Amino acid sequence: MATLPVVYTYPLSNYTFVKKEPKLDKDTTLADRLARMKLMYRQEGMRTSVEAILVVQEHNHPHILILQIGNTFFKLPGGRLRPGENEIEGLKRKLTSKLGPTLPALVPDWKIGECVGMWWRPNFENVMYPYCPPHITRPKECKKLFLVHLSEKDYFAVPTNFKLVAVSLFELYDNPQNFGYVLSSIPQLLSRFKFNAVAT
């Protein structure tokens, strides 16, 4: 049997969470978001976005740090790359924008690991697939999920209009009605890793 790559996780209590200025969303509704995506597509072509899977441990079980907006919308930290931007550097920029403290000295040293999943948006709709359908020659978005290796201790600043919640793998698994298909796929994406919980 092949040896699984090891990911070290640290207790949620190791991390410091503070608030910072709200990060206003460019879109107030899903229709606004898709309309803006259509406009950007005409200007720049296919949208490429990157998102981070941040793993901590709670009760000796892996949990994923997820941004919660309002009562029912959850997403991974990350966002759209600029045209021609490197994926790794772009994800670091997005993580610093979403979760980095205002003091540069406190910004985590983001260690971007493996790309563990890709999702495709065939049309200007909310539906994404973990493959590009064969009849789609011009997809509208490609989203890549990266595993980010957290340090033993880090300092996060969360915009006041977001919550950063730790959600267990068993709560995410097969739960698209609450978290959507991308987030509920994460336990399966991470099944090829061995998580070593480090007690500190």
Automatic annotation (TrEMBL):
Classification via SUPFAM superfamilies: Nudix
Classification via Pfam families: NUDIX_2
Regions annotated as coiled coil: none
Cellular location(s): Nucleus
Statement: the UniProt record of this protein carries the keyword Cell membrane: no
Span of domain Nudix hydrolase: 46-172
Subunit structure as annotated in this protein's UniProt entry: Homodimer. Component of the cleavage factor Im (CFIm) complex.
PANTHER family: PRE-MRNA CLEAVAGE FACTOR IM, 25KD SUBUNIT
Name used for this protein in its record: Pre-mRNA cleavage factor Im 25 kDa subunit
